[in-house]
Structures are given as structure tokens and as C-alpha cells.
Specification:
Elements: E1 8-12, H1 16-28, E2 32-36, H2 39-49, E3 53-57, H3 67-78, E4 84-88, H4 93-102, E5 105-108, H5 115-126, H6 134-143, H7 153-163, H8 168-175, H9 179-192, H10 201-213
Helix pairs in contact: 2-3, 4-10, 7-9, 8-9
């Protein structure tokens, strides 16, 4: 089940303590979890359990480079649209473009400590959305600083929240403004950055991320 309810999760994380902690956290929210510790086991577990979402570390055995990420892409090639939430210890610029093209979630492991944020991100990705860690967004914004000078400080705040996958209502709550004000800011942002007026949150996030990546 998706849309905020319990989902079936296949979790791939080689660090035993973190893996067990994530299992406990996910089960606390009512999710069913199959946990593994390496990339080959991840692929096998997805074939066995047919999960609603995969949560995987980037670096995993046997080589501790990008095995988890590659396994996720392999799984999505065979199961188009399979929701995947990637976890990483650091912002890895080399992977950002691929992750954005794939339309998956990308969170730093530090975000796990923010339990509600992590749970919300998992729900959004399981429902087909795109979620990008705020620190990744911050670094992308820094790289594209010159074109963003056209935006007001408030518009830059809204842009960062859009890229995190937030709905208009969530942005309004975060900034303590009305949804009408958020909609006005978004219209201004899209116009200033020459982005198309995407019709739903997911496409809007992808449009913004495509701009930031460019």
C-alpha cells in the first residue's frame, strides 16, 4: 500500500547497526521490511519479495564503490518505475545527474536522524514522487548562483523546498504563509527561470532539478 500507508520495503545496507536501526524505524511506521547487506542480495530480495520501494546505500560489498546504486538501476531497468530511495554518507556530485534522470529519492544518511522527515520522504518516493536532500539542493543552488540572482530570497527558499519534493501546502506550512502566496512565488520562479509550468508536484520537481543540474 502507498499514499502514506504501510509499504513493503527491501532495505540494502552493509553496516549492521544502521541496518537494524532502519529496520526498527521502518517497522515502527508499520512497514514490512526485508533487509540485506550487499548488492547481489538486494537484487535477489527484490525478485523474491516484489517490494513497493527499495531503500539502498550507494557503497556496498563487494567493492564498496557504487554497487548499491548500480543494483538499483539494474532493478529499475527490469521494473520500470520501481520506487528507489538512495542513501549516501556524503553529497556525491558524480551521481546526482544519474539520480535526477532516474527520478528516484536521494537522501544523506544524516537525514535518517530526522525521523519524521525520513518517513515522509519514504512515503513520497513510494507514491512515485522525487525527493532530494536539502544539502544536495543547497550545493546545486550554489553551483548555479549566477542565474539565480534574478530570484528574491523568498523565491530561493521556495525553490529549495520545491526541489525537496514539497507540495504547495507543505511549503506554506514551512514558511508560515498562505498557499496562494506560495503559488504566486512558484509562478514567478518558473517564469524567471524559463521553466515550463509542470502540472503536478513530481513533474515540477523534475523541471527544477533539470535546471539546477544544467
Amino acid at each position: 500500500m502507498v499514499g502514506g500507508g504501510p509499504v513493503r520495503v527491501v532495505l540494502a545496507e552493509d553496516a549492521v547497526l544502521l541496518r537494524e536501526g532502519l529496520v526498527g524505524l521502518l517497522e515502527r511506521f508499520g512497514h514490512t521490511v526485508a533487509a540485506v547487506g550487499d548488492a547481489p542480495s538486494l537484487i535477489a530480495a527484490v525478485e523474491e519479495h516484489g517490494p513497493d520501494i527499495v531503500v539502498t546505500d550507494v557503497r556496498m560489498p563487494p567493492g564498496f564503490t557504487d554497487e548499491g546504486l548500480r543494483a538499483a538501476f539494474t532493478l529499475r531497468a527490469g521494473r520500470p518505475g520501481l520506487p528507489v530511495l538512495i542513501l549516501s554518507q556524503y553529497v556525491q556530485q558524480a551521481y546526482v545527474a544519474e539520480l535526477m534522470d532516474a527520478g528516484v529519492g536521494y537522501l544523506l544518511k544524516d537525514r535518517i536522524g530526522h525521523v519524521r522527515e525520513f518517513a515522509d520522504a519514504l512515503d513520497r518516493v513510494a507514491a512515485g514522487g522525487t525527493v532530494v536532500d536539502p544539502e544536495v539542493v543547497r550545493q546545486l543552488l550554489t553551483r548555479r548562483r549566477d542565474p539565480l540572482r534574478r530570484l528574491t530570497p523568498r523565491e530561493r527558499e521556495v525553490l529549495a523546498l520545491i526541489a525537496e519534493g514539497r507540495s504547495n501546502a507543505a511549503i506554506a506550512r514551512t514558511l508560515v504563509v498562505t498557499e496562494a502566496a506560495v503559488a504566486k512565488h512558484i509562478a514567478s520562479i518558473l517564469a524567471k527561470l524559463d521553466l515550463p509550468p509542470a502540472g503536478d508536484d513530481h513533474r515540477r520537481v523534475l523541471a527544477v532539478l533539470a535546471y539546477l543540474r544544467g
